[in-house]
Amino acid sequence: MNFNYISLENNMAPHTTIELIGAILFLIAIIHTFSTKYLEHLAHVHKRFSGILHLLGEIEVVFGFWAMVFILFIFSLEGHDSAVNYVDTRNFTEPMFVFVIMVIAATRPILELAKGIVFRVSSFVPLKTEIVIYFLLLSLVPLLGSFITEPAAMTLAALLLSQNFFSNKVSTHFKYATMGVLFVNISIGGALTPYAAPPILMVSNTWNWDIWYMLSNFGWRSATGALINAIIISFLFKKDLSKITFKKKTGSQMPLSIIAAHLFFLVNVVYFAHHPAMFMGLFLFFIGFTIAYERYQNPLIIKEALLVAFFLAGLVVLGGIQGWWITPVLLSMDSSAVYYGATGLTALTDNAALTYLGSLVEGLSDEFKLALVSGAITGGGLTVIANAPNPAGVSILRKHFSEKHISPLSLLLYAIPPTIIAIIAFRFL
Predict the structure, then answer these.
(1) CA nearest 253: which of 402, 74, 95, 116?
(2) Model pTM?
């Protein structure tokens, strides 16, 4: 049986029972995502069931779990061959890439390099170092994602925020506000080039969007929105940031040859981002290199990266069948409505899935295309599932929250103000 569930017909009736089941399970998964904090709390209260409750309370597990349930439904209703065929026809390149890039970007040599660049840039600004670095982590690093990819930028920014700010005595209000700005700026910050942001990557080749097109139509708006968001939050938390003082670390200096080797692996993994056999081969070589030079490494974040990859893989499986209702919704709108519609729908599904569905439709106007993609990246910071790098940020930063859990609802509420700034940048500038 051919599982091509992306329908381009302008109606919202499911064509098969499997499509309907997929939509129901997708809705359940979204509700489950917003319920994880409660489940995590129950895991600490009811010790007898703590194992299963803790498992279901992990945000990264949610979509993988319901994707498994969905595959079991296909097994029971359509048989073994149909279930296997559906999984075989999904593209898991993105989860694999995010796993690899997270591990490499989080290594000590890369972090030391990124920290050195940020500190060097901050030395030219006549303000308190901690305030300037906070601003740079929420502006420069997200914009850097246009070149090293958004997942790598998220990993670097989240780890540096974790080490230098979240590890201090800061309020929960500060943490959620910072994450809201970080997620939004990562989503819009990857729009300077046609290959770094997943929702843009899905359409750039089909619609012939090169780097000059991106800079003229997206880049300056993305940079403006990211800078304004970073300036506002740095000003609002100026007093909190003034109380933080970085401790000067002493220790052996990282050899330039080790940094260069790590950069080699990072750059080549980014270059071969669409070729899993190549970047996985490079990754295996990289693992061997880290073992050989273990004294220059911190423990690799294999567990965290695998959980994020599992989350994204589940989203690929479960989200790949939602086209029968998402596409008609998008096609029923004009270019102005599709921008706000895409912004809202992105909170409920991966923004790359939205733009991919748009790329399948022929004859769309340039205005419609711009509105669809800009809306998709504008809403990419609203929820954990909205943008592929978001689970990486959650995985790295959640240890600083109560019960090691980040509330999806709180994240949504704190992400709304920077999202409004992004809307102004893309629609009114």
Answers:
(1) 116
(2) 0.84
